[in-house]
Amino acid sequence: MFGRSRSWVGGGHGKASRNIHSLDHLKYLYHVLTKNTTVTEQNRNLLVETIRSITEILIWGDQNDSSVFDFFLEKNMFVFFLNILRQKSGRYVCVQLLQTLNILFENISHETSLYYLLSNNYVNSIIVHKFDFSDEEIMAYYISFLKTLSLKLNNHTVHFFYNEHTNDFALYTEAIKFFNHPESMVRIAVRTITLNVYKVDNQAMLHYIRDKTAVPYFSNLVWFIGSHVIELDNCVQTDE
């Protein structure tokens, strides 16, 4: 279920004459997005490759040229990603977009770049998007995306995920919904996410977890573990 994704960062697409790692190429890709706001069978591959190329430029810009993030933010380019998801454009586009976002956040190392990506709340909108979790591949990439985001949590970045004023913490509350998922790798990912959340020393966030989610989550977790213990005991009794 959690097979390694195809490595494409650094591969590059487009004409040889165009410098794919540049602000100019990002501007060109922005133009492609503006001309293809509606996903169709004819342009879906173009849109997937465009988003991949944008991600590649952002990863390159994180190390080499911060102006690409300035342009990305100025043109509100993340909204194109979200709009593509909201069009219910099929599992292929959905899987490719989740995979691409996962690779993007895995490879961003500077906090300033991360702040650019997390601003405007688009990532939280993606987290709460109604994906088809009956699709194993979508489930795998989604929970991997949440786990990658949880690894970026610290006292500074937590404010992009936990909103003290609205008492909302989608990264955490969406993840714990899958604590008893039938796929063991999903359950393991959920535990990793929760541990990454708990280690952030933010009192308002920790109070929210304690007051709003601790009782139902840990009660269900104990029940889940207990039911498996009973099943194991029954198996032992049967064998005897």
Number of domains: 2
Order of strands across the main sheet: 1-2
Pairing-aware structural class of the strands and helices? mainly alpha
- Strand fraction equals under 5%
Helix content range: 55-70%
Helix and strand pattern: HHHHHHHHEEHHH
Specify the number of helices. Answer: 11
Report Rg. 20 Å
Morphology: globular
Distance between the termini: 35 Å
Largest sheet: 2 strands, antiparallel
- Rounded mean pLDDT is 86
DSSP summary, beta strand count: 2
Low-confidence stretches: 4-8, 10-16
Description:
The chain has 240 residues and is mainly α. The chain has two domains: 1-138, no CATH class; 153-240, no CATH class. It is built from eleven helices and two strands; from the N terminus they run ααααααααββααα. The protein has helices spanning 23-35, 44-64, 67-74, 78-86, 91-107, 111-118, 122-127, 136-150, 170-175, 184-198, 203-239; strands at residues 162-163, 168-169. The protein has a two-stranded antiparallel sheet with strand order 1-2. Helix 1 (23-35) runs antiparallel to helix 2, helix 2 (44-64) packs parallel to helix 5 and helix 8 (136-150) runs parallel beside helix 10. It is globular, with a radius of gyration of 20 Å. The protein starts with 22 loop residues before the first helix and ends with a helix.
Topology:
Elements: H1 23-35, H2 44-64, H3 67-74, H4 78-86, H5 91-107, H6 111-118, H7 122-127, H8 136-150, E1 162-163, E2 168-169, H9 170-175, H10 184-198, H11 203-239
Antiparallel strand pairs: 1-2
